[in-house]
Hints:
Blueprint: H1 2-32, E1 63-66, E2 69-73, E3 90-94, E4 97-100, H2 106-119, H3 124-130, H4 145-150, H5 167-188, H6 195-201, H7 211-215, E5 256-257, H8 261-269, E6 275-276, E7 279-280, E8 317-318, E9 321-322, E10 350-356, E11 377-379, E12 381-383, E13 388-389, E14 399-401, H9 410-417, E15 452-456, E16 473-476, E17 484-485, E18 489-491
Parallel strand pairs: 10-17
Antiparallel strand pairs: 1-4, 2-3, 4-18, 5-18, 6-7, 8-9, 10-15, 11-14, 12-13, 15-16
Amino acid sequence: MNYLRFVITSAVLITASSLLMTSCKSKSRRGDVSAKTGVRYNDPYNGGLQINRKIKESPGPGLVGIEGGTFVMGGSLNEDLAFSHDNLRRRVTVASFYIDETEVSNADWLEYLHWIAQNYPQDGKLYYDALPDSLVWRNPLSYNEPYVNFYLRHPSFQDYPVVGVSWEQANAYCQWRTDRVNEHILRQRGILTDYKTLNEQQQQAGQAFNTEIYLNGQLQGEGIDGKNMPKDNKIGAQKDARRTVRMEDGILKQPYRLPTEAEWEYAALGLIGNTYDGNIETSKAYPWNGLGVRDGSRKNQGRMMANFKITGGNNMGVAGDLNDGGDITVPVTSYKPNDFGLYNMAGNVNEWVSDVYRQLSFEDFEDFNPFRGHVFMDNQYENAETRTLAKDKYGRPIKVPAKAPRKQTWEELQAAKSGDPNSTTYDYDVRGFKDEEQQALYGKTTLVNDKSRVFKGGSWNDRAYWLNPATRRYMQQNESNAMTGFRCAMTMVGNVFGPGK
């Protein structure tokens, strides 16, 4: 009897093991074979379609993953002191994304300036246009001249947030950062020539890497290609043929950019620390819990949670026991981070976001990833037949107005090739969608136009009211001051926080 029970048990275990192994093999094969045609991927003999199943989405350098969700935008603002009614409460959903852990610092900006000087030593205009306006510190009735001369470059200020940068300069930095991060990835992997070899070749200045141009196959050849380029599996390719990296390989990072206003406000509130079983248990007025600006913990009780102007004539507290300790800005990792792990989402410096400013109504926003500011552009082709992109003198693709709201037919596309690339009947500039710019009134009864950009967060020179993430102000995109900096964001491809994660 015992022997029979042993035989039956063994048979069941063997059958279960076989089924498990078959299931594992099936799942393994499923990754290498098309589920719809049965054709194998990554096979050089059947066409060579390469599908990478081993890529794991990860943030670029300096970024923190923000799990998206729904929240009431404008909901943390309990009073509207200016009676501007420009952040009406509305429930929206923000997709998961990445954002910088800290504000961009002076050291970060000096790296940017150094790169320009190294690569374009003869281009004085490019370097000058990238310089922050250090004169924002100058004040007729305040002795701020030392900051004019020392704030950006002195090593004692290297970890302080960069200021005096306009919205336009911040966007240029994001584009530069995208290209440098992707170039570094390719050189570290040996897909492009490594830095040492590049230096020995004494590469000519002005030959800068650009992500879009590289992905279009226009950056390759002797002196550029590394030893570890991916194999080229297309039919007819030579045995040891190599190719450039494609977007489908999952190696390169998405572009850095400024966060949208909705993303910034969502990340600043950090409500993830106040949720339980899908419900928000307590709301917030600031990036920390509580209705005040002082720390409620026993260890740091009474200490200020951010760098702001406490009252008129009081920037930092009394000597011997300073409150926030910041006479002007402070290092970008000062104070406690919020529940997303982000530093200084209130105070220190205001931060640019990507949105064009408008006073809001209930009709002029979307409830998923709300954003105002689109100017839809396409790449210009130098040769449409070979799909060669036109480049400017810095090696960046030239952008032209989008021609249509949707994919054109082949016939429409061919007809457009013979026309002026800058000519279009499509309304590609939708910054004023449902709320057009009043050009005749600008400078007379309004200071809002399509170049008015939102900044948020409050600064070292602002009162506590502006620390609320729902407050919003604006400035022209080419303007700057000593109270405004920025941090970068990045779109999350896929969703690392999705089902089953």
